[in-house]
Amino acid sequence: MQLHITSLPGGRLGREAYRFVDWLQAAGQSWWQVLPLGPPDRHHSPYKSSSAFAAWPGLLADRRAPVSADEMLEFRERQAFWIDDWERYCTRGAVADQVRFDREWGALRCYAAERGVRIMGDVAIYVSSDGADRRFHPELFQTGLVAGAPPDAYATDGQLWGNPLYDWPALQRRGYRWWVERVRRTLDLFDLARIDHFRGLVAYWAVPAGSRSARRGSWRRGPGIALFRALERGLGARPPLVAEDLGVITPPVEALRTRLGLPGMLVIQFGMDPGDPASPHRLENHAPDRIVYTGTHDQDTTRGWLESLGCEQRAFVDCEVARHGFADRRQPWWGLIRLTFSSPAIVAMVQAQDVLGLGSEARMNVPASAGGSWRWQMRPGALTPALARELREVTQESGRLAG
Fold it and tell me: What is the pTM of this model?
């Protein structure tokens, strides 16, 4: 199930996080997916973090917990690549907060593992323009261009993200070490991690700085397989990653993902276009080497999406769900959850908002919109034992219940 830490009741680690793990176990779920854990920007987005390495102290259950000198020293030695830069960026208390986070997070992760729940993280491809990484490693970033995405059916002006772009030749000359250490830190925290905007590692959309939209951008070549070979050499093994291969996916992007053996992503909502029967997101076209979602954090909730559809597309969706034997007139979002879990994809992921049957008011993010996102929090006790039983039943019916 996908639920970010900030969406837990209270938005922090601690008692509610442990309760959520207990609920996942009762519901027969093997994976908990979260969003990036770094300090968010002023709009609460974790995808423009001031650090690619540090965790956000705002997630701590107890920010006053004592930290010993030995713990501080051990952490400095283990995280020597980045912690001094982060301390210079944040000044006093920065290291102690990271020790506290590792302590709380490690305890939660052990608790989850004992209950058969693994945690999947998210590597935001870009960093903040005024964060620690850009400030202390300016030689690794381009000037005059910023990140974005080209115009498409969802954003006619494209998406102007504004993040700094990597200077890939400069990174290559340094053996991609910054990326190696970033992924090493990520895998210290998670069992599996999603590489956000995977296609940007093949070719990325570069927009002239100061542009009002992403329309004036152009495609530039990314590092491709060289980056992943450097990761394997630096980490001593092939890292457990998932490719977020959504958006404009070209044959070279698909070829790289396949060559690396990385699972890709499928989204049930994307497969409900009556005019696109060949879509890889259409259920009958699903491949096993994928993770399938009802919807992602960048989309409306399943209920909100259903209620926004025009009559023709809604009728098509209803027919598709019924054709596969999952019609649910009383709670149609559960029909789509069952459809998602019936996929041959290796993992089926559902948003907490979809299990709760929430509408657009619970949407996590609206891409290309600066404000109003990343604020949804679940009410205490919203995930009831009855909902756990229902999701467990769906999981068992689809043959996904862990042994």
Answer: 0.94
